[in-house]
Amino acid sequence: MNVRNIAIIAHVDHGKTTLVDQLLRQAGVFRANQEVQDLVMDSGDLERERGITILAKNTGIYVGDTKVNIVDTPGHADFGGEVERVLQMVDGVLLLVDAVDGPMAQTRFVLRKAFENHLKPIVVINKMDRPNARPAQVLDEVVSLFCDLEAPDHVLEFSVVYAAGRAGWAVRGLGDERKDFQPLFKAILNEIPAPTGSPAGPPLLSIASIDYDSYVGRVAVGRVREGTIRRGQTVGVRSRDGSLRKETVEKLFVFEKLGKTEVEAVEAGEICAVVGFEKVEIGETICDFDNPRFIEVPPVEPPTISVIFTINTSPLSGREGTYVQSRKIRERLFRATESDVALKVEETETSDSFKVSGRGTLHIGILIEKLRREGYEFGVGKPEVIMRGSEEPIERLFVDVPTEYASTVISLVTKRRGELVRAEAKGGHVKQEFLVPSRGLIGLRTKMLGATRGEAVMQTLFEAYGPFKGPIPGRNTGVQVSMAEGAAVAYGLFGLKDRGPHFVKPGDPCYEGMIVGEHCRTDDIDVNPCRTKKLTNVRSAGNDENIILSPPRIFGVEEALEYIEEDELVEVTPKSLRLRKRILGETARRKAARDAAKVGSAD
Ligand SMILES: Nc1nc2c(ncn2[C@@H]2O[C@H](COP(=O)(O)OP(=O)(O)OP(=O)(O)O)[C@@H](O)[C@H]2O)c(=O)[nH]1
Ligand SMILES: [Mg+2]
């Protein structure tokens, strides 16, 4: 069979999923009158809500009689693990680069990964319809990126296609007629190598991803490297520790259009989904049981950040969620690692907490968001970077701001132990590059946007582990901590309005130790948001209905994670996100703070 396997890779928002939409349309996947929503591959709830791709996904189209398997990948750095694991399924990549923005942080990351996997790239300069498109310069920038990454000789002669994914056209030459994707289809067929491997003999395939299907259970996805895999066949599954077990292929699927089609057999070259293995993991090899082999794949980059998940110990625990026990949370967290190679879950000294490590706060935030939607309730601590001995992760931070904010950005980043390594002025804007400890990046985005009136565009890329750079100041304000239990009252909140902005509104439940607002000073204060007016015989004019409060500050998951300090937690339930002190009782909390100060001053 004639097959091509490609992945679409790029920096976030450079138009991967939109391009796949249009490829599907032009390959005649949809009926003429079929209503199809945009970004049809972004099928998860969270993907739709946030407009980003989180999981890599497979689809297959026919170009003439050639089957083209396409893997759409996420562009956000936190989901880089997804890109890494799917690249082993393909023989080539479409590297999309925005015709205005040019190559960005994640372009570099994904291209490096493509080279590590020996993949042939086709460069697609995309979004050519943007009014200030600058294809020639962008191409120059891509060439320097190839050189920077020491592109292997065989890919130095890459081809270039200019495209407008959303409008549905691609051309090889800038002067060519812009009408459809034929030039792109041709480039894929002519330049991406056909997969090798003979269909004769037993199958050999490495599992690149695991999906769940509520009907059939675990679905293992990979490309058949050699031989043929058949329904009903008995095969060996070799795991990374070298052990081998016997399994039977219950069902087999190939990817077609927006779904999977069941088939009897899949030959070398094709990407398939295998059902019937109860315990199968990413990185395992399906092979001949009597003559087992193992396919080594490049290791994925390790996580850089971790948080502690605990059971919810707030007085409101169990009111809004279905699953609150540590056993349930444990089971769910470990299950998440089975399909996400960049996620790691470990037990801690207590049976009520688990250490979850990932690539960044968005990576962890999406996991939290998924769990709360499934009905889980739990507490999460402040994100911490993962040290390696005395070394800490350092990231390269790229910031693009109008020149007037350049010094503001430098002062903000250097306070967080960042070091300016490059600055380049271009038409009223400055592009700055820093090396910053990952610790310094936690919470930086909000501060940066605040300090530059939302003008800063920032991206990060993991650089290397390096020597510890010294302490970084945390949040520079204290918080208002409730000392009362009950519903917040307008009167009580109004009395506190000069202390700082609130995180709750009248009627919201509060408890002792819950954080109900920010304090305008650096220390915490204990407040009573439930305080009601003393009843008097004389009715006063200002009753509760007349009180006008400013709307409370509402946190999203990642924002809450980045806001809290070490002695605080985010309480997550399906309905609410609350911030709280770890130690709820006022007296115990004060004592703990005193003890900590003593230890601090002793050394
Ligand atoms: N002008 C223009 N905008 C485009 C084009 N293609 C995509 N966009 C817009 O760019 C934004 C991002 O598009 P997506 O297709 O979601 O980008 P993506 O690369 O899949 O993003 P991630 O998966 O989150 O990395 C959307 O607002 C699109 O409408 C294009 O050809 N021209
Ligand atoms: Mg996408």
Tell me what the structure shows:
It is a single chain. Among the domains are: 3-191, P-loop containing nucleotide triphosphate hydrolases (Rossmann fold); 204-287, Elongation Factor Tu (Ef-tu), domain 3; 391-467, 2-Layer Sandwich (Alpha-Beta Plaits); 474-535 and 550-554, Beta Barrel (OB fold (Dihydrolipoamide Acetyltransferase, E2P)). Helix content is 24%, strand content 31%. It is built from 15 helices and 33 strands. The strands form six sheets. Strands 18, 19, 20, 21, 22, 27, 30, 31, 32 and 33 form a ten-stranded mixed beta sheet that branches. The protein has an eight-stranded antiparallel beta sheet with strand order 12-11-17-8-9-16-13-14, with no helix packed on it. Strand 32 and strand 33 form a beta hairpin. It is globular and about 85 Å long. The N and C termini lie far apart (70 Å). The structure holds guanosine-5'-triphosphate and magnesium ion.
Helix content: 10-25%
CATH top-level class of the domain at 3-191? Alpha Beta
Task: Give the bound compounds.
Answer: guanosine-5'-triphosphate, magnesium ion
**CATH topology assignment of the domain at 3-191:** Rossmann fold
Task: Please name the defining characteristics of this protein.
eight-stranded antiparallel β-sheet; binds magnesium ion; Rossmann fold; globular; 24% helix; Elongation Factor Tu (Ef-tu), domain 3; 603 residues; ten-stranded mixed β-sheet; 15 helices; alpha+beta; Alpha-Beta Plaits; binds guanosine-5'-triphosphate
